[in-house]
Amino acid sequence: MEFPQIDPVAIALGPLQVHWYGLMYLIGFVGGWCLLIWRAGRPDSGWTRDQVSDLVFYVALGVILGGRVGYVLFYNFGKFLDDPLWLFAIWTGGMSFHGGALGVLFAFWLLARKFGKRYFSVADFAVPVVPIGLGAGRFGNFINGELWGRPSDAPWAMVFPSDPMGVARHPSQLYEFFLEGIVLFLVLWLYSARPRPAGAVTGLFGVGYGLSRTFVEFFREPDAHLGYLAGGWLTMGMLLSIPMIVIGAAMIAWAYKHDDRPLKRG
């Protein structure tokens, strides 16, 4: 199956070019902002429109800065040691979800201090919309024909133009779009629609993303300069995602054990 050739430039106005990948980031942030504004408008939400706008801005910085630093440290530390200024060469590509996640967790801490809220009041409010950005980003990867999967003879396997081997591969970007974007969003959005113990929603995000990413890693081609880390199957993506499952599950158990709300629901 041939890869559908899609111009990576979505909009071109003279010298100004807007790429699909950047547009996907914008869709993720705007979509998340709109849904959080809607939830902030519910009675007793504890949030205002201005606070939501600040939250989205801080999260955007966390994603970009954390994502870049994480990619450099987790996936290409050797190149950073050779050329430390490469850390700032964002235009060359290279972003890590796990680094972006750490950046977002730090942004939550800053916002909690700024608004005088408990940490998980911020995190549990925000994480249900994070999959929108994840799904949009993975679709952007697909449009760019990057981060493709392992060789496959499945009927839907595709030949990506950027693949020097020219073999049919799993469109693993679409697998991630579906699991990390659509499925994870629905699970978190529905689960968080009712009051939950502090930290439970954030913990569920860790479990859900960790399981989705670990599963897809069995179909995704490892980074060429890293390859498999052990046993011919373990990848860096798995190594960083499996702890999310364990920590997330522990957070959920802790949240329900220490739920001190006067009225416990569902």
TrEMBL record:
InterPro entries: Lgt (IPR001640). Pathway: Protein modification; lipoprotein biosynthesis (diacylglyceryl transfer). Catalyzes the transfer of the diacylglyceryl group from phosphatidylglycerol to the sulfhydryl group of the N-terminal cysteine of a prolipoprotein, the first step in the formation of mature lipoproteins. Coiled coil: none annotated. The gene is lgt. This is Phosphatidylglycerol--prolipoprotein diacylglyceryl transferase. The chain crosses the membrane at residues 20-40, 52-74, 86-111, 174-192, 198-216, 228-256. Keywords: Cell membrane, Membrane, Transferase, Transmembrane, Transmembrane helix. NCBIfam families: lgt (TIGR00544). Its EC number is 2.5.1.145. It is found in: Cell membrane. Belongs to the Lgt family.
